[in-house]
Amino acid sequence: MEEFQKIIGYEFKNKELLTEALTHSSYANEHKNKKIKCNERLEFLGDAVLSIVVSDYIFKNCPHLPEGELTKLRASLVCEKSLFQFAKKINLGNYLILSKGEKNSHGDERPSILSDAFEAVIAAIYLDGGIEHARKHILRFVEPEILNHKPKAFKDYKTTLQEIVQKNPGELLQYCLVDESGPDHNKHFVVEVHLNSNVIGKGGGKSKKEAEQQAARQALELMGY
């Protein structure tokens, strides 16, 4: 426990919280008579703390990203794959309290077990020292990932479709708004793209431009591009 606290850079006032965070359900089930707490409840709380800290950070530090890209970035940072990599950076598997069966089947290397334990440790830090200590611990892992994040290049499907259609003189490309729904603050538009009189694509979005792009994307897919 002392060694692990040095690795994560946080010393617990209540050591029982750390023990609980590192205890897998298999060990608790193996020692039912001792009423040992496993990390499943802490994992639940840690997931929420992780999400709010990451959301707050990327909202404040990525002002250039729209809502959709913020959602994708957050999802990539809090998914099992990322948490597994974070857990490996602190050799979390070496400190897990597992049943004999889980140890023998290399449970200390399993992504699901390590990622859950990583969230449980976040919750333990949060309960023991508050949100700022939890934030410091989380950002140690996610901040470098955010700084290295490269947003995907914007695909201008409309321009691509227009360039293809222009190769055949006389072809007429038109975008038609066919549906508009929702309140002013949360509109949804549906657009069809017509080649001459034929519908070749349909798309929706929160703006007419986004709906047109999605309609053009569908048209390109149907045309084999």
From TrEMBL:
Q: Where is the RNase III domain?
A: 1-130
Q: Name one GO molecular function term.
A: identical protein binding
The alphabetical list of record keywords is: Cytoplasm, Endonuclease, Hydrolase, Magnesium, Metal-binding, mRNA processing, Nuclease, RNA-binding, rRNA processing, rRNA-binding, tRNA processing
**Pfam families xref list:** dsrm, Ribonucleas_3_3
Q: Where is the signal peptide?
A: none
What is the superkingdom listed in this entry's lineage?
Bacteria
Q: What PROSITE patterns does UniProt report for this protein, alphabetically?
A: DS_RBD, RNASE_3_1, RNASE_3_2
Active site residues of this protein: D47, E119
SMART domains linked: DSRM (SM00358), RIBOc (SM00535)
GO CC term (a single one) = cytoplasm
- Fetch the InterPro entries from UniProt: dsRBD_dom, RNase_III, RNase_III_dom, RNase_III_sf
PANTHER family recorded for this chain?
Answer: RIBONUCLEASE 3, RIBONUCLEASE III
Q: What does this protein do?
A: Digests double-stranded RNA. Involved in the processing of primary rRNA transcript to yield the immediate precursors to the large and small rRNAs (23S and 16S). Processes some mRNAs, and tRNAs when they are encoded in the rRNA operon. Processes pre-crRNA and tracrRNA of type II CRISPR loci if present in the organism.
Protein name in UniProt? Ribonuclease 3
* Organism, scientific name: Candidatus Limousia pullorum
**High-level lineage:** Bacteria, Bacillati, Bacillota, Clostridia, Eubacteriales
